[in-house]
Amino acid sequence: MPSSMQRTGHEFYRKTRNNSIVKLVRERYIRDDIPCQSEACKSAPSCQEATPTSSALLTGAATHYVVPDISVAIRYLEILEQEELRNIIVPQTVMLSLQQHDKTRTYKRLRQVVGDPRRNSIVFYNEICSDTHVSRLPGESSLHREERALRKLAEWYHHHTGKRIIILSELFTSSSSRGVDVYSVEQYLKEMWPEHTTLQNLREVLKEAEIEEDLDTIRLFSSTDSKKGRPVAGYTEYRSSADLEAGIKSNRYISGIIRINASNRDQAFVTNNNSPLGDVMIVGNEDRNRAVQGDTVVVELLSEVNQATPSFGISYDGNDDEELGYQASVEPNSTKRRPMGRVVGIMQRNWRSYVATIQEDGIEQGGSMHLAIPLHPVIPKIRIRHQDVKSIGNQRIVVRIDSWPVSSQYPNGHFVRSLGPIHQLDTEISAILVEHGIPESQASRGFGEACMREMPIDTPETPWRPTDEELSTRRDLRNIDIFSIDPPNCQDIDDALSVNELGDGRIELGVHIADVSYFVKENCHTDLEARARGTTVYLADRRFDMLPSVLSERVCSLRHRVDRFAVSVIWTLDKNYKVVDTWFGRSVIRSACEMEYEQAQELFNGADTVKGLDKKTAQKLKKSVVKLVDILRVVRERRLGKGALELESSEVKFQIASEHNITDIIPKKELEVHEIVAEAMIMANASVAERIHQRFKDSALLRHHPPPTKERFKLLEQAAATRGYQIDYTSNKTLAHSLERIADQSSDDPALVSLLKTMATMAMNEAGYISSGNTSVDHYYHYGLALPYYTHFTSPIRRYADVIVHRQLMECVSETSVSPSPATPSLLHSNSKLVNLCLNLNLKTRESKLAQRDSAELFQSLYVLQQLKNGPIIMSGIISEIRSNGFFVYVPRLVLKGPVYLKEKSGELMVPLSIVSGNSSDDNAYMTNCSYDSDNQTYVAINTADLPRPIKFQLFDHVQVSLKLHMSHAHRHQVYMTLVGFEQRQAANVKLSTKTLTEEIISGEIQDKEVQATKEKSKSAKASKAFRQTAQNDSVYDILENFRQMNLIEDSEESQ
Q1: From residue 544, how far is each of 439, 548, 800 by CA, in Å?
Q2: 571 contacts 687 by C-beta, under 8 angstroms
């Protein structure tokens, strides 16, 4: 309790969005126990000792502390967000002003700055601190009162810590006092960061930016009417906050996140889970009313007669796939009409940094205002100011949106920085990182000096070795055979395995995980950096580590023939491989071998010698590998019997030669040993999850996988039905049996089985981290793995969630509460802190997966670009999805999914002659006088008078395609495909008797001159099309030969 508190009233006026003035009164209690939160505190005892719940965040080593005012917080917030700026004291005065003037977005962004522990920044509650409180004088303006409040705060901090205090302001005078300076942002950057080009340039563009939170709006009685332009393009002013809130409460409006249809950008969807209406469609720019992808919007429903049907064609701009795990609830190809609405307000903007390219025609025109085309097509063009457009004309640049006035067709934004020339590999990798929010600090692979000072010494001259003192506290496992099994050239080895027969029928099975938490203490600099990064990001040709390499590749990595610290889970199993006892604890191990998956598989298959392993090691470990497989096969079958799913994930490896030349794309080879190692990790994760929940009932970090929703499985159910299969997803067990039955019935078609399993994977809800105190026990269940408790424990080198789980497990083992320091409470016992951490880790994990996917697609497009120089690329594929203007084809050989267009943007058909002629060179010459029929779900039929029967393409048909590349200036190059024809194996589905075919040919329904005429028509009609080729002459015999190749066989009943 504070020694004294004084109550005071605070009155202020607030202008609402509809320009009405309201008077608000708030009570405040003035306290004398508000801590400074600085390591340089000169009080005795220090503020932190007097208030032990407070943590010292402002560093003692800093030369100065920065205090921004409201003008800087609004106009130059993006500079405050830069990682270089630290030790910022955000006054409560500024935070209250933002709240009072409805600057919610700015308020939240500023909270994120001080919420990042790496920034050493705080909010100081000067309005309720007895030493810094300032009362408003009679007749004093609010602006002058705020200036006095910030000066008093700065003077108090200077006397309290001895530090120089710099007030940043664009409003106040530049007068200074001893130890306190008032600088503009320009003055501050010139003195403190004179060589930092990015900060200097950013200040220039922000100075000229037309920001949404204009400084004039914080002036209480200012009028903004003169600044409003006339609405354009049908846009309307947003409703007032009071009207929006009242409309939502009365169900007159609904609110939700807006998602733009990538296939048809004229359509958008807003979903409100609390509304029985489901998705509301927003059609056209006028009704979207300046909302941007991801904004939380308020929608007014149109009349019931205004309903629309979603369009689900293939996008002609690429980026057609829904983002991983975040699909709209509208089923693809749905014919259900949906209610329509218009956006009448924005609850929260989702503006972020966007990668963009200057519009080509604007480069030569010059001038200072330019349109930047974002990399993702669902984001509108952004108007930016730049004086030297030619210097960035052919560059990928980063831009941000500042405002979108009702009078502007496009949003206003500003240039942040250039990433490099378009279509260069390093540039495109940087673009992927920006688009998925991977911070620059991680992208540059760098760690700060503070982190590096915490690293253990490990050099060739002085390699790291465990101390005797630490060894005495650990279980010594160096005398048993322990080995790791990983991909080739793995450097960050998280896990190792062991099997030890005890001689009485019992067996010890061990999983040993790198003891990262020993080296990375909670709330140290390295821990804070790892927490912010969340995960190691793996791309096709590089990775961006969560931890410094001295830990991830050396001291923590479980390398062979050296002592390493581990956290071990050791099960004692009976003769039936059932667990009778489990031991958790810290250990020291010495791995006997770093095995690759292929080597372990060869040992299990019976090989006595394996390439890459010396004979003695191979013979020594062969028995252990065989026993390991024997045990974990049984464990896996038991789990599968409870309903665990065997789903599919597409992984590829790119063979890269010098100068980024991609020589091959190799799909991941599935080996049984992959499943065995994965099962060992699943077993360890499940055991640890149950153990930590016993102690941390309200704050165990668990991994939850919710069951799928019915809507997400409709497409899979319909797809399977086209081949006569039934999918029962009543439970995970029935779904597992359905997929197993399909695999048995289609053993001759592994591509179909793989595709169906992949579709089942994509239909699943996304797994995520949860805090056990935030949900009931029955919601801990992991649907995919069929386990009541699950967490992530086995990869602490690359996942921060595992580091937290290690700390919780160690506290369980020691039975003592571990806190980093009295002044810094541990988050292990805080449900609220763990919930926020889980939200951040889920976001980081998801963005990492999306970045990995985009990276793979980038390298696939580079491969196609390079291989096309050697001639056409003809591949076998399987139709994976039918759309209104074509279909998608999955090519297993390259693990590549791409579109086959059968319609132009204009709606004109583009059916290639190759499906009739059988010549791949005809894939860019098109049939005329044909029609297109499709149910948009299961089949596409091509009808023409030149052929006796429609040509029908069905879901899961095997086809041959030619890979092409759509070249783009503003977007990434996109792989697409043209149809060559059916793959020979698939034609058994088409039934046409030889007798009928012969009669039709004889009767003149197919004649050589008609085929030639068709091709001539195609030439003249399509000659102006880009990338089109002239077809070669084919005779009627060529057509007959093509039908033979398509294997149009007689029906068995007709042949009798």
Answers
A1: 10, 10, 14
A2: yes
pLDDT tens, position by position, 516-537: 999 999 999 999 999 999 999 9
Buried b / exposed e along 299-311 (16+ C-beta atoms within 10 A): bbbbeeeeeeebe
Question: Do residues 201 and 417 lie in contact, with contact meaning Cβ atoms separated by under 8 Å?
Answer: yes
Interatomic CA distance for residues 341 and 765, integer angstroms = 28
Helix locations, 261-368, DSSP H: 284-288, 360-365
Paired tokens of 563:
């002592």
**Residues 733-750: what's their mean pLDDT?**
90
Residues in the chain: 1056
Amino acid at 477: L
CB contact at 8 A, 431 and 374: no
Looking at the DSSP assignment, which residues form a beta bridge with residue 245? none
**Which strands sit side by side in the sheet containing 341-348, from one edge to the other?**
279-283, 267-271, 253-260, 296-301, 341-348
Which residues in 740-863 belong to E strands, given as ranges?
768-771
Cβ atoms of 563 and 508 closer than 8 Å: no
Half-sphere exposure of 438 (CA within 13 A, CB side): 29
Average pLDDT, the chain: 85
pLDDT, tens digit, 9 for 90 and up, residues 959-1005: 999 999 999 999 999 999 999 988 875 433 433 433 343 344 344 44
> Residue 954 in contact with residue 989, Cβ under 8 Å?
yes
Are 400 and 412 within 8 A, CB to CB?
A: no
Residue type, 228: K
* Cα–Cα distance for residue pair 1037/40, rounded to 1 Å: 92
CB atoms within 10 A of CB 993: 15
Across 407-506, where does the E strand assignment appear?
412-421, 475-476, 482-486, 495-501
pTM comes to 0.86
Write the pLDDT tens digit of every residue in 527-572. Answer: 999 999 999 999 999 999 999 999 999 999 999 999 999 999 999 9
Buried b (16+ CB within 10 A) or exposed e, 732-769: bbebbebbeebbeebeebebbbbbbbbbbebbbeebbb
